[in-house]
Design goal:
It is a single chain. Helix 1 packs antiparallel against helix 2. The protein is built from two helices and no strands. The protein has one domain. The radius of gyration is 52 Å and the shape is rod-shaped. The chain is an all-alpha fold and 144 residues long.
Amino acid sequence: MPEGQPFGERNFVEELLAEAELDLAGRRGQAAVAEAVLDFKRHQIVVIEADLHRRRQRIAVIEADVRVLQRRQRSRQRMRTRRARRRRALRVARTCTRVALTAFGCFSFTVAAYLFIHGLPGSTEMFGAAASAWAAAIALPPVR
């Protein structure tokens, strides 16, 4: 046996070194694969974050549109309420005017009849006033 190799031709140190180098190369390969996977995952995260940002922007635009539409709807509702109040006020005013004209016509007719029966002057004018009041009450637009 040669003096440097007590176990014959086998050199365990070189075999151990070769095996360690192979193991190291395998681990480096695994590390490279893991690094590539990690880079891909990082890229996916960036893409997902960009998509999320776009979606949030779309949501913000939609929310702004909804706020504008709600504001318009409230404005329209207020306008409808104002119109309804105005219509109601006009209806009440017409009714009151019609009642007042009718009452004035009745009063004028009563006074005219009294004047006519007692032979006093002015009965013709009072009959005319009564007729005018009733004609005005009839001429008012109808209450809807």
